């Protein structure tokens, strides 16, 4: 397989932009990524676009505005893992040798298309019984608290840390810091999860230009290599399952570590799918950064903050940077690229050379995620 590098990234700030169109945000992210790469846009051989609620062929609308209409394009929908999936497909295009350069784009405008909480999806039994995402993860949090004595303060510490990181990120949806007390006293959404422990809806876009080693010689920025790109789908089981761990994340992480020839101890900076505070705790354990049950104490101790042992979500994560569903996975990648290049400004993780991005979306019968991507990057 061909070695694949990221040579350009771009991002439209996350937030709520009712006066902009989905296409306008996507175009801005792509223009930034192409400019960042230094490549002529005519070098792009194919495009893959992740989106959930934007209707038919959102990618073609963006390419038409970019002057790239006519190249092969795939629109993908994989719930919250849509953008991570788009990157995986684009990586596959280049790694296979089919194209020398490709563009991956994730974009979403939830302020126009989604109202209220997001259901589990499809015809799941949980949805029929009225279960929504916050309720599902509230149950997960309670089970983790029961089994491992995870405390309310430890859950809140994740939110405090990510909002502190988000305050340093000019592209984040929320740039305000909060205390543990403020997090716990914010409106209750689903016990024990309060408002500031749930990721917000919003709008935004992120784009990545990736290419072969041959094409990368034309790039103007330091090359960030994709050492591993893994996509897994969820499993279906009838009967009890461990609610405090995701087999899908563990499988994706194991495959990614093997492909990259490294282990969790060699990762310098991480972006994980913190849709809720409990999510970050569980993913930090499943990805191998902490033993089971120690993710909560690690967050409370500062181990996952910038300057800690393993900085997680220096961008602010989904909780503060925001979570426009179809854009999130590529916003994670953009953050890691900036970190590995040493371009992250006041949120820079010192000496970061290897980064991991984890993105997860959808649910199968409410217990295992429907899709998960893990990417390992190295500069």
UniProtKB/TrEMBL annotation:
PANTHER family: ACETYL-COA C-ACETYLTRANSFERASE (PTHR42870), NON-SPECIFIC LIPID-TRANSFER PROTEIN-LIKE 2 (PTHR42870:SF1). It is an enzyme of class 2 (transferase). This is propanoyl-CoA C-acyltransferase. GO terms for molecular function: acetyl-CoA C-acyltransferase activity; lipid binding. SUPFAM superfamilies: Thiolase-like (SSF53901). InterPro entries: Thiolase, Thiolase-like, Thiolase_C_2, Thiolase_CS, Thiolase_N. It holds the Pfam family Thiolase_N. Residues 4-213 form the Thiolase N-terminal domain. Residues 241-365 form the Thiolase C-terminal domain. The keyword rRNA-binding does not apply. CDD domains: SCP-x_thiolase (cd00829). Keywords: Lipid transport, Lipid-binding, Transferase, Transport. Its EC number is 2.3.1.176. GO terms for biological process: lipid transport.
């Amino acid at each position: 397989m061909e070695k694949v590098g990221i040579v350009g990234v771009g991002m439209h700030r996350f937030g709520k932009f009712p006066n902009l169109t989905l296409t306008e945000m996507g175009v801005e992210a792509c223009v930034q990524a192409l400019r960042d790469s230094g490549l002529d846009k005519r070098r792009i051989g194919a495009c893959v676009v992740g989106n959930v609620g934007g209707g038919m062929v959102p990618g073609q609308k963006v390419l038409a505005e970019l002057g790239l209409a006519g190249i092969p394009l795939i629109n993908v929908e994989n719930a919250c893992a849509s953008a991570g999936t788009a990157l995986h497909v684009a990586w596959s295009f280049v790694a296979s040798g089919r194209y020398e350069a490709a563009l991956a784009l994730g974009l979403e405008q939830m302020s126009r298309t989604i109202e209220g909480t997001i259901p589990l999806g499809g015809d799941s039994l949980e949805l029929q019984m009225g279960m929504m995402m916050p309720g599902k993860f509230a149950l997960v949090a309670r089970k983790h608290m029961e089994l491992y004595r995870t405390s309310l303060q430890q859950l809140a510490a994740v939110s405090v840390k990510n909002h502190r990181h988000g305050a340093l990120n000019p592209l984040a949806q929320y740039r305000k810091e909060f205390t543990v007390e403020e997090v716990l006293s914010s409106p209750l959404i689903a016990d024990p999860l309060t408002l500031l422990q749930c990721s917000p809806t919003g709008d935004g876009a992120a784009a990545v230009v990736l290419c072969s080693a041959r094409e990368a010689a034309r790039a103007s920025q330091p090359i960030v290599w994709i050492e591993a790109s893994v996509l897994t789908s969820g499993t279906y089981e009838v009967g009890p399952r461990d609610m405090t761990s995701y087999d899908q994340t563990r499988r994706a992480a194991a495959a990614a570590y093997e492909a990259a020839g490294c282990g969790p101890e060699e990762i310098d900076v991480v972006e994980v799918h913190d849709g809720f505070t409990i999510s970050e705790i569980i993913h930090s354990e499943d990805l191998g950064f902490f033993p089971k049950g120690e993710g909560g104490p690690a967050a409370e101790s500062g181990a996952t903050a910038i300057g800690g042992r393993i900085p997680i979500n220096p961008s602010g994560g989904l909780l503060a940077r925001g979570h426009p569903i179809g854009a999130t996975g590529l916003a994670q990648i953009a953050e890691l690229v900036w970190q590995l290049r040493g371009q992250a400004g006041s949120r820079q993780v010192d000496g970061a050379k290897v980064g991991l991005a984890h993105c997860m979306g959808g649910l199968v019968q409410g217990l295992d995620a429907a899709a998960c991507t893990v990417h390992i990057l190295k500069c």
